[in-house]
Amino acid sequence: RNLLDRDTFSKSDPICVLYTQAIGNKEWREFGRTEVIDNTLNPDFVRKFIMDYFFEERENLRFDFYDVDSKSPNLSKHDFLGQMFCTLGEIVGSQGSRLEKSIVGIPGKKCGTVIVTAEELGCCRDSVLMQFCANKLDKKDFFGKSDPFLVFHRSNEDGSFTICHKTEVVKNTLNPVWQAFKISVRALCNGDYDRTIKVEVYDWDRDGSHDFIGEFTTSYRELSRGQSQFNVYEVINPKKKGKKKKYVNSGTVTLLSFLIETEVSFLDYIKGGTQINFTVAIDFTASNGNPSQPTSLHYMNPYQLNAYGMALRAVGEIIQDYDSDKMFPALGFGARLPPDGRVSHEFALNGNPQNPYCHGIDGVMEAYYRSLKSVQLYGPTNFAPVINHVARYAASVKDGSQYFVLLIVTDGVISDMAQTKESIVNASKLPMSIIIVGVGPAEFDAMEELDGDVVRISSRGRFAERDIVQFVPFRDYVDRSGNHVLSMARLAKDVLAEIPEQFLSYMRVRGIKPSPAPPPYTPPIHVLQTQI
């Protein structure tokens, strides 16, 4: 909207070029170009870019705009109209997955704005719940009636068929009612609603030589009409049909019900406005070493981040795209606080217990460095108070509108194991996840137990309802070449990868559906005025 006008006699002819950034060397690579739209400062580009999206990765994007003056593919031959930088997470995490941002890059000029919308490619996430019955099937067994079952096949591009479902066998009846079954639309017809689905009816025999009763064909589109006269199928046995003049059919199969269930994804909730609240808790125990010494894990090196800073940034910079107010509570534990030296396991890094919120990851880093200068590292290492702190907030919003992620960065040996397990088991019923990053050389056996990937965590005989803890040791990510950008990206990838599934497991157990996304953006209609 409102692009710069670079053409003398008419309006600009804009094109948009999208670049993505490599993680390691920060190099920008061209990803694709839209079409050119002639003679407008308010283009609605049609060409879409299809990209892979991973919650746990930060994908930097750059949109460059040019006024195209000739047929040349070389961008330096055209007039630059400005650019916009953002991350893929920022677009996806915006209300309705629609981001509006100013175009910058030409000093002293207003370059207009760009509106980017993202939508997840459905790639057909639907499943169908169907139930069938049959009437008057042919009798195949000498002593009793038939034992019928159905076999479903989807057709392939080359005309061959692939089996995709078998029903159970209903014993000794010519009028069976099969149990309802659930199948993904991809398995049933590859997401193509008009593709042929072939259904065969067999009489089950113990020795495996099942007798063919007959078959019929249908399609997803036909089945989706539900129970109706259209969904009663004659079962035909081609051999019998060829031999007997009077042959009508070998019975009928009727569709009793057809229910579509859409598998919802993490992005459906984000698009519907669910906010992710991010809280940080930092270990200020004496085992970290004196912050003024270079050997300390809390050493404030003016030239590079310490391990705590790297873990905070790596995780925080990705999560902040999904939190609209970008205000993060930052807590510390295991320190003696001024003025009276009392030990706290839940203090605000910004010194304000009533309002522990920091603005953005930069605000968190600033508060962390400030409190290092004012508190005295002490002990013991208690996790339960900060877990309970976040759990109190999570317990007050269980409607699916908010989800809480607590990042604990610690040097290790936990003192309140029993209380922490109790807190985690209680928290597993709440909309929250816990990420623990272990820094330094300690043994982290206790943390592996909290992670619950191998054995689900329990406390006093009660098991956690879901796995909500993800633990990683920071030393596994230190890049040998000293490239911290890469080690931070790898760390974030591993600690955040489980969050969407943990998030969905909470929503599923609670039966919470995503809110509808706000209506998509529609460009204003330009009214054409005519002179009469």
Automatic annotation (TrEMBL):
UniProt organism field: Melanocharis versteri
Keyword presence, Lyase: no
Annotated GO biological process: cellular response to calcium ion
GO molecular function, one term: calcium-dependent phospholipid binding
A Pfam match: Copine
Listed GO CC annotations: plasma membrane
UniProt family annotation: Belongs to the copine family.
C2 domain span: 1-101, 110-233
Every VWFA domain range: 277-478
Cross-referenced Gene3D superfamilies: C2 domain
InterPro entries from the UniProt entry: C2_dom (IPR000008), C2_domain_sf (IPR035892), C2B_Copine (IPR037768), Copine (IPR045052), Copine_C (IPR010734), VWF_A (IPR002035), vWFA_dom_sf (IPR036465)
PROSITE patterns reported in the protein's UniProt record: C2 (PS50004), VWFA (PS50234)
Name listed for the protein in its UniProt record: CPNE8 protein
Keywords, comma-separated and alphabetical: Calcium, Metal-binding, Repeat
